Amino acid sequence: MGRLPEAAVAHYREHGYYAPIRVMPAAEAETLRLCLEAHEKEHGVLKGAMRHKSHLLFTWLDGLIRHPAILDAVEGVIGPDILCWSSLYRATSSIVRMKCSSPARRPK
Q: Which of 38, 79, 106, 108 has the largest count of CB atoms under 10 Å?
């Protein structure tokens, strides 16, 4: 995907968000969904504290916050010094969202 177009960055600066951004093929997203479903089958639905900072609990979400397409988009807005301090994971019937309040540090 690469960096966001200038119009997207301008929208972010004016409104505080820009969406949607396609960051991966459907098959890759489906793999993440299957990881979530496998966890929920064994342990139940993610609730409460399990939804917060989930990238610290699950390697498959840790990989998501370090996904190159996500980091490229974020870097285009805030620059290369990126750190994920917190995340909130939420799944609906058709969409999986992960919000990083301060996105993940790009590996050097």
A: 106
